[in-house]
UniProtKB/TrEMBL annotation:
Gene3D superfamilies xref list: Impact, N-terminal domain
Family: Belongs to the IMPACT family.
Annotated Impact N-terminal domain residues: 20-125
Protein name: Putative YigZ family protein
One cellular-component annotation, GO: cytoplasm
One BP term from GO: regulation of translational initiation
Native source species: Flavobacterium aciduliphilum
Coiled coil residues, start to end: none
Length: 201
């Protein structure tokens, strides 16, 4: 079972690609929600006041993939699609690439545009640090305080990540484990006396 994916550790540094007086600024960001994507675009629009086109592509998710390619006024499929092609060729997800264009007065034609947007997207990704992450499954483990030690022992033994914990008379701990270990972890906690485990989506 493949339970890893590639994404970016941090936003890339700004890159500049020039073609016949047009300037193409490329950016790549790690993202997990459409809200973050909107925020990045808003910031770039303020930063590059006067730019004509803010073309972008993103891909989110590991099981259910969500993606979009936006030409932002350029001829159809000359900007968003070549940008998205670079996300695919680098094998990334949870990523947004934006290419901001300042028009230089000379038309580039369809082939020129595709090439320029693809190059700017590629340069942005080459300037970013690509990392591998695991696809994790989250569970909530509920138990009485008196069973704390046995629950904590398993969490430690199995090297589980604690996301949140609520320690009162009845305790709840949210844990994360790699997808490939999820069934095994679920079974271990299910077989514990006076402990319940539920999957959190």
């Amino acid at each position: 079972m493949n339970d890893t994916y590639k994404t970016l550790s941090l936003p890339s540094k700004e890159i500049l690609f020039k073609e016949k007086n047009s300037k193409f600024y490329g950016y790549a960001f790690p993202v997990t929600t459409e809200e973050e994507i909107k925020n990045h675009l808003d910031v770039l629009r303020k930063q590059h006041y006067g730019a004509v086109h803010f073309c972008y592509a993103f891909q989110l998710g590991t099981d259910k993939i969500q993606f979009r390619a936006n030409d932002d006024g350029e001829p159809s499929n000359t900007a968003g699609a070549p940008i998205y092609g670079q996300i695919q060729s680098f094998g990334l997800t949870n990523v947004l690439i934006v290419v901001v264009r300042f028009f230089g007065g000379i038309k580039l034609g369809v082939g020129g545009l595709i090439s320029a947007y693809r190059t700017a997207a590629q340069m942005a990704l080459e300037n970013a640090e690509i990392i591998e992450k695991t696809v994790n499954v989250h569970f909530v483990v509920a138990f009485d305080y008196k069973n704390m030690n046995k629950v904590m022992r398993i969490i430690k033994e199995k090297n589980l990540e604690i996301i949140t914990q609520k320690m009162e008379l009845t305790c709840e701990i949210e844990i994360a484990t790699r997808k490939k270990n999820a069934e095994n972890i679920f079974d271990i906690f299910t077989n514990l006396f006076e402990v319940t485990i539920t999957r959190k989506d």
